[in-house]
Design the sequence.
């Protein structure tokens, strides 16, 4: 064997040995997730959204075999929390628990520090709460048709409460009034609690609320339900018609809750999260913990969630423009 062939063979052997040593010394890429996940909630602790978020965090953590920690980051209509997640590393360890504020804010908040669609990747819807139009019991109408008839004969005489300018109850009520072609005066409050107090006291006539917070007052006779803002009636109030079946086809007012990740998050990690959400969202145990408050569970795919976000951004922009709505 010549010196050159021996040398070549020796080099080849050394390369193989080096490659083997490198592969043995380099740790394998860890499977996702291998550390706690942070779920950022743009609302204070204690409300309905926070309750659902914590339930989701527990279930998601069990499915993924890793802790999912809720971080409440309220303020600025959800933009602070959204900006935090949009600018976080796109590794699947920081997630946003979003609501319709996500699709309303682009029309209300100038110079958002993120692009609502480009900077966040939809993972899945998790839950939906349809709004419920309720009236103070002293009002001279007892159902949706009578409310519409009264409002049209008495434009601007009625008023309605909301938790503040640009909140979902405000936006969805304005959408309803635009579809009806009538006027009811908006009275904004700083939060849902004072708005409900004045509705119960008769200071305002009607309010977009939810089954969870209105049921006790309906049972006591202080409020009366007029219509539910979903496409199907609620099993909890089967005698209350939907707005859609009452003459406004397709109308919905839904407080949805869903999970988004920073844009650029690996598709396989998005898929893992969605698979985990689907696994627990379809269980009777999870659904049972929410249905008593009128919360419906959902596990939509990322593409469907992205379509909803895109559609709502355009819809709310039109409502904001026509009603000249300004943020507080």
Sequence:
């Amino acid at each position: 064997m010549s010196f050159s062939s021996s040398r070549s063979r020796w080099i080849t052997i050394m390369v193989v040995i080096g490659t083997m040593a490198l592969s043995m010394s380099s740790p394998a890429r860890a499977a996702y997730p291998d550390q706690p996940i942070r779920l950022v909630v743009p609302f204070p602790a204690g409300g309905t959204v926070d309750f659902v978020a914590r339930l989701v965090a527990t279930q998601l953590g069990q499915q993924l075999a890793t802790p999912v920690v809720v971080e409440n980051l309220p303020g600025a209509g959800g933009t602070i929390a959204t900006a935090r997640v949009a600018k976080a590393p796109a590794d699947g360890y920081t997630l946003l628990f979003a609501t319709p504020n996500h699709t309303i804010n682009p029309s209300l908040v100038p110079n958002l520090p993120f692009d609502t669609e480009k900077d966040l990747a939809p993972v899945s819807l998790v839950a939906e709460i349809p709004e419920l139009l309720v009236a103070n019991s002293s009002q001279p109408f007892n159902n949706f048709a009578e409310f519409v008839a009264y409002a049209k004969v008495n434009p601007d005489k009625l008023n309605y409460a909301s938790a503040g300018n640009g909140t979902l109850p405000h936006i969805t009520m304005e959408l309803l009034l635009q579809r009806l072609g009538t006027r009811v005066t908006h009275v904004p409050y700083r939060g849902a609690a004072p708005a409900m107090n004045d509705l119960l006291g008769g200071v305002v006539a009607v309010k977009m609320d939810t089954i969870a917070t209105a049921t006790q007052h309906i049972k006591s006779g202080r409020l009366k339900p007029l219509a539910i803002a979903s496409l199907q009636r609620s099993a909890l109030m089967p005698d209350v018609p939907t707005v859609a079946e009452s003459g406004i086809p397709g109308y919905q007012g839904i407080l949805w809750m869903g999970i988004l990740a920073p844009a650029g998050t690996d598709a396989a990690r998005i898929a893992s999260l969605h698979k985990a959400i689907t696994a627990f969202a379809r269980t009777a145990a999870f659904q049972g913990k929410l249905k008593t408050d009128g919360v419906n569970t959902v596990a939509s795919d990322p593409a469907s969630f992205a379509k909803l976000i895109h559609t709502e951004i355009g819809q709310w922009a039109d409502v904001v423009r026509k009603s000249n709505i300004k943020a507080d």
Q: What stands out?
A: The CA atoms of residues 127 and 297 lie 4 Å apart. The chain has a mean pLDDT of 91.
